[in-house]
Design goal:
With about 280 residues, the chain is an alpha+beta fold. The protein contains eight helices and 16 strands. The strands form three sheets. It has a seven-stranded mixed beta sheet with strand order 1-2-4-5-6-7-8. Strands 9-10-11-12-14-15-16 form a seven-stranded mixed beta sheet. About 45% of the residues are buried.
């Protein structure tokens, strides 16, 4: 496979590539359990020139006869992202090449790119694979009626996506979703928020979805949640538990808001977690 201009890592028989969809802006005021001035200081000290910018990654998985996309980016919704298709093309992949889409959850910056402005599906040959609990949440009319006004549009976007892919939609509860790829329930951010563990003797990899939005803050301070979290306290507990797991086992991680470098490891020292980006193999 020829070199492509995006960070890639090997996980067993597959190559996982971080494909940028661009950025969204989220005020540091959206964070809880931290003063916005402290949050801004941490961002600046980490070299983040635009402290309120949140990068959006999708992950392309190729090998073992499959071409898989994990999440679909924002697709330009709310002026967020929108670079996925052009960046996939740079990686040598066209929308028709994608055979499977794995969802971590159905927020707009993860499913907006799965349909176009007219509501037509972007990936015509793809099976959409989502956790049943996540699908049920967005399709529940009671949840829609209880949602705050700003969140109701999220339901309409999610439903448009699930309806568009209804003929190829497959749901799961837990366990292996594809050969060598196991679902990891990571509750709190959404009802059915799910990570994916690529199990390999040589290089295991966890795609952890939205465990963090501001990695330079929330990895050092896992108690800090964001307004996008459906259950902030549960999201914080899940984050702490997962940080302990990936740091103690030395697992490679990938996250939708981890930054353009795409892959990292979590180191623990003196009771604090730290983020160390992984250098792509030569």
């Amino acid at each position: 496979m020829s070199a492509i201009p995006f960070p890639s890592q090997q996980a067993g028989d597959v190559t996982v590539t971080a494909i940028s969809d661009g950025y969204l802006t989220a005020s540091l005021d959206f964070l809880s359990n931290i003063d916005p001035c402290e949050a801004s200081r941490m961002q600046n000290e980490a070299g983040q020139k635009a402290p309120a910018s949140v990068h959006i990654n999708c992950y392309l998985v190729r090998g073992a006869g499959r071409t898989i996309l994990i999440d679909g980016g924002a697709g330009g919704i709310k002026q967020w992202g929108g670079r996925l298709i052009s960046n996939l093309s740079l990686a040598g992949v066209e929308p028709s090449d994608i055979d499977t889409i794995l969802l971590t959850h159905a927020h707009p910056d993860h499913v907006g790119g799965l349909v176009d402005a007219a509501g037509h599906i972007t990936f015509p040959n793809a099976e959409l694979v989502a956790r049943q609990q996540e699908l049920a949440f967005w399709q529940d009319d009671g949840n829609l009626s209880r949602a705050a006004e700003r969140a109701r549009g999220n339901f309409l976007i999610a439903r448009q996506v699930f309806d568009g892919y209804r003929d190829t939609l497959r749901t799961f509860d837990e366990g292996e979703v594809l050969p060598g790829i196991r679902a990891m329930p990571l509750p709190g951010h959404t009802d059915g928020h799910t990570g994916y563990l690529f199990e390999s003797r040589d290089q295991s990899l966890v795609v952890w979805g939205d465990i963090v939005h501001f990695p330079h803050i929330q990895i050092e301070r896992p108690d800090v949640s964001i307004a996008f979290d459906q259950d902030p306290s549960l999201a914080a507990a899940t984050r702490s538990k997962l940080l302990d797991l990936v740091s103690s086992e030395g697992l490679l991680i990938a996250g939708m808001h981890l930054g353009e470098l795409g892959f990292a490891r979590i180191k623990q020292s003196h009771g604090r977690y730290g983020l160390v980006y992984e250098t792509p193999p030569a």
